[in-house]
Amino acid sequence: MSGPTSFVQQAPVHPETAARFADLHPPFDRQAAVPEANRCLFCFDAPCATACPTHIDVPRFIKKIASGNLAGSARTILDANILGASCARACPVDVLCEGACVLHRYNKQPIQIGRLQRFAMDSLHASGAPLPFAPGADTGLSVALVGAGPASLACSAELRRRGIRASLYDARPLPGGLNTYGVAEYKLPLVESLREIEMLSQLGVEFHFNTLVDTQRLAELERDHDAIFLGVGLGASHQLGVPGEHLPGVSNALDLIAGYKSGELTQVPPRVVVIGAGNTAIDAAIASVRLGASEVHIVYRRGPEQMSAFAFEYEHARLEGVKFLWHVQPRNILGSDAVEEVELISLADGGEFKLPVNLLVLAIGQGSQNSLSEKIQTERGRILIDRATGQTSNPKIFAGGDCTNGGREVVDAVADGKRAGIAMAAWLEAKLVSA
Amino acid sequence: MSQPKATLATTFCGIPCLNPFWLASAPPTNCGEQIMRAFDAGWGGAVWKTIGEPITNVSSRYSSIDWDGRRMMGLNNIELISDRPVEVNLQEIAEVKRRYPQHVVIASLMVESKRETWHDIVQRAEDAGADGLELNFGCPHGMSERGMGSAVGQVPEYCGQITGWVKEKARTPVIVKLTPNISDIRMPARAAKRAGADALSAINTINSITGIDLDTLQPNPNVDGKSSHGGYCGPAVKPIALNMVHQVQSDPQSALPLSGIGGIATWRDAVEFILLGCSTVQVCTAAMHYGYRIVEDMKDGLLEWMEEKGFATLDDFRGRSLPTVVNWNQLNLNYQIIARIHEDLCIGCQLCYTACWDGAHQCIHLDRTSPAPDITRTPAMVEAEASRRISTTPIPKLDANGVGRTHAVTPLERIPRVDEHHCVGCNLCSLVCPVEGCITMERVDNGLAPQTWAERSTAEPVRS
After folding, report:
1. The CATH number of A250-362 is which of 3.40.640.10, 3.30.70.1130, 3.50.50.60, 3.40.50.2300?
2. pLDDT tens for residues A296-333?
3. Host domain of residue B351
4. B390 to chain A nearest CA, in Å?
């Protein structure tokens, strides 16, 4: 159950980590935000709003910044995206709202939507005002949400605003899932994720932490609640399947990121090798640099054109001094008591070489969660849903986020949860009426 | 064909001027030290801060309107005339003229409405060496409550009477400065001309309250919790000034050499005033905002423009646009233009669409990807469709088709279409379009001979 202690108060405080992971994009002050807001053309049916998975009415919230209506601006954001502060920082805006800005086609800089959104949200948090929404009148309905990540949180907010009880179950001690534990600290500090969830919980969301939901527990929840939302995310990190993987000093990107964000990890050894070239690999590599590594390599079996990291993430890693080894695959991890070397093979010419390493970080993706119910159809491990409603093949069970989309951004999970919450409420209310 | 080098030198009611750029009577011309620095910066003349019996000013004195992130697009003041003794101002005029004999120094005057008092100040100002006199009949705040400034300018009879007193004594040109705070500016202008004024200057500042502080609920500029209506100037007032300049210069009973005032900040503004018949222009707000140095580009830009257009002197284009401003009933009713959207320039903001639907005549549509033109699709329908769209972050690994997606080209469905049969040619879409040249208004040959309302209403019975 949610205790009286605030999430933010439970957040670890490590001044050194905070200093090493200062904001990548510093906040606007009012004098900078207003002229930037005034630059916005106020497009009709704006492409930025369409590009946003949660369809935040971007021109509307920006014009409210320009007019000085900061409370209204934050309300506009939160109404579409209950994790608007997190998304303002964590979103890859280059490929979303800012990427869609029409000013690209006018040889002008796109509007800095992410920073403006953060400005509005920071202003709300600084004002100390409560969440600008109230829970709906109690319907007597209740929903259990498995996982307390962005999808479940967004879903629970929609349910609470419609008077449906929401109980969230999460294996971790704090809420937010990857929003709290998985986003690079220089983009979204752990404490900011918790601050936003604390505000959301004003809607009367019930949290059950340190609770793992297995098949049996799910059956119980299904029995005790009117519907279930699965926001369980992805499963364990993939393994390489090469000798030496069990050696101390072999880790994975998500553990590394969660470790330094939660304060358990404050430094890394000098030589770090990250396997994989996705956005998480980049986050892990940059974190290693910031945590004191003197040499950080990213090893990828394909070329730069095939890597799944966004172009701006790649550029950022290069600026931080991360070195990239392309068309290279690990074959063997060597070491007596701990990892000492990784044996690599060039896929271009078959040549072999060794790289000294003290910390080997795997970032080659995650598997799917084990199926919690035979009644839910899956495809390649992903839970199959109706895109518009989030409903699974079991009509009482809805799902969203990484467990359905294969692993995307926070904002995609929020959009999934929001659609599912609205659809669940409609489905439950229709059932009430027909009963 | 070689052209003579263009010159900015001109003459204003007999006063030779190095260039047409004068500083208006205001804080930038408060004292001789300032005016000499202004002349060093390149100003051709200065109208001294109005001289009269010294007053006491309040603090604060100015307030402004910012627009779209730019400061001081409109400036308001409640400052009165010079707070310095008359003798000090006159001594400094003499000193400035001694050091800068070729620059124009105009003494702006305001004294109580007595014949002898005006005679006295005219004599002293001219003895000090002023090249001309500007009668401040325009100051709209404070002084007007004491029966001076716009209290004079708003009553044509007073305006004529005092101008007459001044002309009895004056040996230098007399310029009457007109207030815009009047229903028809031609009335005081005619009175001044009848009384023998040599020239006019217009406009003085416009009565204004620039704003109320939303926290204190007190107006600006704040003087111990209260304010007073002030005089508004700066870029915001230029269109009003241009209209009044046109009114005066197109009226034979008013027209005189005119020094244009009102929101002039660049050489472009100056050209517009001269095209409507001004001989010189006066600047205040822009100099208060950026300093005297702005005159450099005013002169440089004007000369460049004159050379480009083939004008050798200001006289070559002075008043050139006056005849093109006419009464509405002289406009050609059969002239027809329609909007054309240049698809290659359109960035897809759809501001023209929403402007036409909500602010004009519902003749721009979003139907380029429809099988047939669809003028029934409303903005609400477009927005409803957008809200139902499901968007996701493009992840290269997961979206094979999303790789290389580009926003460089405007999607066809975002480019609006003009319904040419219904377009009334109002210009609104081209005004809201942020891209230069993207929406042009193009003439349609409707085969109809030109006809004005005046002609039409006399040719046939009026029905509407």
Report:
1. 3.50.50.60
2. 999 999 999 999 999 999 999 999 999 999 999 999 99
3. 329-383+408-459
4. 7
